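hey can u check if this looks right to u? its 311 residues, i copy pasted from the old doc so theres a chance i mangled smth
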Amino acid sequence: MTTNNFRPQQRPDSGSNERINASEQDTIITNPKQNVSVKDDVADCNSPTNSHNLADSRTVLSLQNVKVASRLSVEGLRAKKGECVHIIGPNGAGKSTMLLILAGLIDADEGTVMLLGKPMNDWSLATLASVRTLLAQQSESGFHLSVKEYLSFYATAQQDVLIPPVLEKALEISGFLNQIVTQLSGGERQRVEICRSLLQIWPQLERGEGVVLLDEPLQGLDIRHQYALASLVKFLCDKGNTLLMTSHDIALSANNCDSLWLMQKGRMVAFGKPQEVATQTNLESVFECHFAISKHDNFLEIQVCAPISLE
């Protein structure tokens, strides 16, 4: 059951929305301002006189010749409106750095990052925070707040319920709204953090104009909630929102995305349709494991057999 007639509260200073240096730790909690109008920025980047418009008007995010120290080197990538992108790769592949770059929270040493046809550095942080949201790994509030209090800091004045029904259906949070956030189990806490990140830009998501970046959102979730989240992601993208998420569940990702990005050592090994990227050759080369892959209509069955290096 959702909670009615709530009043959004002032957010605690649980994180910063300032851009950070690439050398800093890749875990942040965004702390956006509420009720920021994006009308002027969006109108500007969609203007026919804007010299930064891309050839494909459906492109929402793009990177061109982007480099971040020794951590990331990407020649050219884009995510389109309504597209669901899953990013896979071993630890240290650059997945989190990729999301921070796309969120506008770290600057590239070289190259161009564009959001809605406008250079990322031309967006104000306040406006960015109302257009896109980032769920970082290992987010910790450190505040002795109930779930209801914590989420209310991120809800907007336009909402008449704290948790929209579609979020409650997937995340099932109403049963522990009055519990203290720091006393939740790992999986419950992750569901709260996912909800928090989506509430941040919920008006944009309802209009199908949001950009969602999730860093390992499946971490800590049981199987039921992993697939419930996959269904929620599909619902959001079907409305026109653009979503990118990192994952270590190769099979789930390959069967629940429009585009699969495979990374290794800061570089993009392959990207495109899941069945073209999640091949035995690609996966064995990147993950150094033996894989058994079979196709059933549009479904990819992917099994990990054994690490190659341990033979």
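The domain at 39-274 is CATH 3.40.50.300 (Rossmann fold).
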